[in-house]
Amino acid sequence: MNIKRHLSDAFLLDYAGGNLSEGWSLAVATHLALCPTCRRQLEAMEGAAGALLEKMPVEANATDDSWERMKARLGGLQAIEIKPEPPREPVKPGILPEPLRSYVGGDLPDLKWRALGRGAYQILIDTGDRDTQVRLLRIPAGKPVPEHTHEGCELTLVLAGSFRDGEDLFARGDIEEADDTLLHQPIATEGEDCICLAVTEAPLKFTSWIVRLMQPILKI
Amino acid sequence: MTQPDNNNVSATDISQVEMMRLLVIVGQERKVEAFELLFRHYSPRIRSFMTVKTKDRQVAEELMQETMVAVWNKAAQFDPARGNVSAWIFTIARNIRIDAHRRKRPVFEIDDPAFVPDNTPSADVEFEQAQDAGLLRQAMETLPADQFDVLKRAFFDDVSHSVIARELGLPLGTVKSRIRLAFEKLRSALEGRR
Predict the structure, then answer these.
(1) Complex ipTM value
(2) Residue of A36, A49, A98 lying closest to B155 (CB–CB)
(3) Which of B97, B112, B100 is nearest to A49 (CA)?
(4) Most exposed of A5, A94, A133, B121 (fewest Cβ within 10 Å)?
(5) Domain with B61 in it: what CATH number?
């Protein structure tokens, strides 16, 4: 796999600092599972954070008291043997990596898609995060993602197949970062349905296909 | 400003090597004496880190204690070939802070069969990791103040880049480009060694 479209430093930094909400983090962490390049960037960022930690101001005279309290806690902890994690059920190599697979409850064959119209399907993914909307989309080969506008950012991570947005091709592992200045029109590449994870700030407002459905009624 | 020099080993690099040795001993032998030395170095720094956001010394002390308990418990998972001690301890402190706010931060799993491993060799010499830490620290000192400030806010103030932009009254694009420029410099400092 040769990932060409990576996360921006700004998104990665939010994730490294622990300041990215659950919905965005799900897309970032799933991209990271597929992208060694971005994992190396993340490591460099955590290294930078470690360097800043070393330079934090040190309050004198507090350490002895703190250490006494820690020793008391360790007295109870030392007796506890750390159990090795139980061996997990071997999972067959699949399409959806963690953490996404657990969020949707299985890999592609296990999923229950809901029709979105015009051959497209979706699965809404529940997170504890009210600020984002997270969904898996399945776009039929050669067909456009229903045209939409949205407020703020959108992250789209390709998991299977590929799509084109203008001149740019996005394949498995590639992530597209779009903002509201862009009315983009991703089109699934011929030959294979495109499955992608889409995270948006506000609920997507699908425009054109609703308009098209209404056209015969409104005679416009 | 000193330029990164591969032959020049600073005192801080040596202390990073020493911290790494102590953490490995804690992980393998559960030695309280080694842990005490780590505790005396890192606990005041972690308390400061926790105080930046909470402003409450009691809460910060408790979060620091939680962090150091996690360091004790997870020491065996630390891999000296994959990272330096201060970065590893930062990630533990960060995760304790996220838990304290009852937030969730999904993470990738390296044992997952769909996980794509990194084929470029990792640093096989432990000292190289400590040296990376030194190079990063030196490179950070050469960052322009506006870039350094954005990184500091991102790691310590518990805010996203869009909130930083709002707080500084700057366009989002300006903050994004400061972040990009800062990490371009840090990455080229690291690549200079390899």
Answers:
(1) 0.90
(2) A49
(3) B97
(4) B121
(5) 1.10.1740.10
